[in-house]
Write a structure and sequence with these properties.
The protein contains 9 helices and 5 strands; from the N terminus they run αααααβαααββαββ. With about 230 residues, it is α+β, with helices and mostly antiparallel strands. The protein has a 5-stranded antiparallel β-sheet, with helices on one face. The longest helix has 19 residues.
């Protein structure tokens, strides 16, 4: 019985599409739905009527989004499925790599004068922060999950008192001969040094600020030399 009813419905539908080649497809589908509703007593399932649109939607969803493309091209620590990964550096060439980073600790006049006179209860602020920065550089792979454990050939951390803005200016330089750069080690060095300055001085003031942690210069590797001022 069902087959006969469908067979009876097909001729009008065929005439409906052949009546006018320029007839709008959506209007034709709507008229066909009305004919089927008059025959079967209910409209056809909506997923059938919109199957053409769904097909285009599926195709669009399969094409890579701009964000996905950016991940694939720009972020080496993210895998093809968006998961975090450590970069495989086994195929990279060994070269000498150096990175320089800096930051600033704004003390305020009161704390600045105490540091300058070495009158803080915890002792010599700049000396302790220098050692802390060097130790921090060597612990970078333990602090930053996806960093490689790099053999460092040199770590330098310098702290200078600036009376103009009552701050401590910190510069760190890290070197290695290996397959990956030491930018993170340099920035970790100055950050840990800055945090140590804060810890040594926080009893005298809670308004101390650590600012402008940034990479200044790097050399070595495939990308070569880079400087912030160029």
């Amino acid at each position: 019985m069902f087959v006969r009813r469908v067979a009876g419905a097909l001729p009008p539908a065929r005439r409906l599409f052949s009546r006018n080649n320029s007839h709008d497809l959506s209007s034709s589908i709507a008229e066909l739905n009305k004919e089927m509703e008059s025959i079967f007593g209910e409209p056809p399932p909506t997923n059938l009527a919109s199957s053409g649109n769904n097909q285009f939607m599926v195709q669009d969803s399969q094409s890579p989004s701009p964000k996905t493309k950016e991940i694939e091209v720009g972020f080496t620590h993210i895998g093809s499925k968006g998961e975090a990964q450590m970069v495989d550096i086994s195929v990279k060439e060994i070269s000498k790599r150096v990175a320089v980073a800096s930051c600033k600790v704004i003390l305020g006049k009161k704390v600045f004068d105490l540091v300058l006179a070495n009158q803080l209860a915890k002792g010599d602020v700049l000396a302790v922060a220098k050692i802390a920065g060097i130790s921090g550089a060597k612990q970078t792979s333990s602090l930053i999950p996806l960093c490689h454990n790099i053999h460092l050939t040199n770590v330098r951390v310098d702290l200078t008192l600036n009376p103009i803005d009552f701050s401590v200016e910190i510069e760190g330089e890290v070197a290695t001969t290996g397959k990956t750069g030491v930018e993170m080690e340099a920035m970790t060095a100055v950050t840990v040094a800055g945090l140590t300055v804060y810890d040594m001085c926080k009893a005298a003031s809670r308004y101390i600020q650590i600012t402008d942690v940034r990479l200044e210069h790097k050399t070595g590797g495939k990308s070569g030399e880079w400087s912030r001022d160029k």
